[in-house]
Design a protein that fits this description.
Layout: H1 6-19, H2 23-42, H3 47-55, H4 69-80, H5 84-92, H6 111-123, H7 128-138, E1 140-141, E2 144-145, H8 148-159, H9 165-183, H10 194-199
Helix pairs in contact: 1-3, 2-3, 2-7, 3-7, 4-5, 7-9
């Protein structure tokens, strides 16, 4: 798998945080630990690779505030460094359904980039790591792990909903359910603080 080492990936994230600080950095750190934990529990995935891929899934935010564009920016950044397997999750993490028209975010890229993403999604075959990063992403908020339902509401309040929102939610639930069948338990049992972060009172 062509991805950076853990040390290199953490250096990239630290550099990105300096360029564009924000809650997204803590989010990806939680996502990385979630992916690592789930992969280790499964036993048939490489936990180190899972950590690195999840840590870098939003690395495109290094270029500043954006919506869909961060996926393209992250892909091109990592692809340019010779890490195509890390680059792909920058796009695949946002698409439990492989269809660009189900995107949550507004089109803040040129038409050529939009069409590139459309063709990329149509051509790529998702593997376990693509799906695991999707799951790790959707259970992780900047303050910790939550039920997927709460993350859905958080994202909807920030970005709004589309005609494809319910379809996307069902697809994310299907990803979770698939991993839970393999684990033989709820993924939430592996993630500390889910109850507190989901239901806890905050001032």
């Amino acid at each position: 798998m062509k991805i950076p080492s853990r040390t290199e990936a953490e250096g990239m994230l630290n550099e990105a945080e300096g360029m564009n600080p924000g809650p997204w950095v803590d989010h990806v750190r939680y996502a990385a630990r979630a992916a690592e934990t789930i992969a280790r529990e499964l036993g048939d995935m490489d936990a180190e690779n899972a950590y690195i891929l999840a840590l870098l899934h939003d690395i495109g935010r290094r270029t500043g505030r954006s919506k869909f564009r961060h996926m393209i920016d992250g892909y091109r950044y990592l692809e340019g460094l010779g890490y195509p397997d890390a680059a792909r999750v920058c796009i695949t993490h946002g698409f439990p359904i492989k269809d660009i028209d189900t995107v949550l975010h507004e089109k803040d890229v040129p038409d050529a980039d939009w069409e590139f993403a459309r063709k990329f999604l149509a051509s790529v075959e998702y593997d376990d790591y693509d799906s695991l990063v999707q799951l790790a992403d959707i259970v992780s908020m900047p303050h910790g792990y939550v039920l997927i339902d709460k993350r859905f509401v958080d994202v909807a309040l920030r970005y709004g909903t589309t005609a494809h929102t319910a379809e996307r939610w069902r697809a994310f639930f299907a990803v979770r359910d698939s991993f839970e069948r393999r684990l033989g338990k709820s993924v939430y049992t592996l993630l500390p603080g889910v109850v507190e972060n989901t239901f806890g009172f905050t001032e």
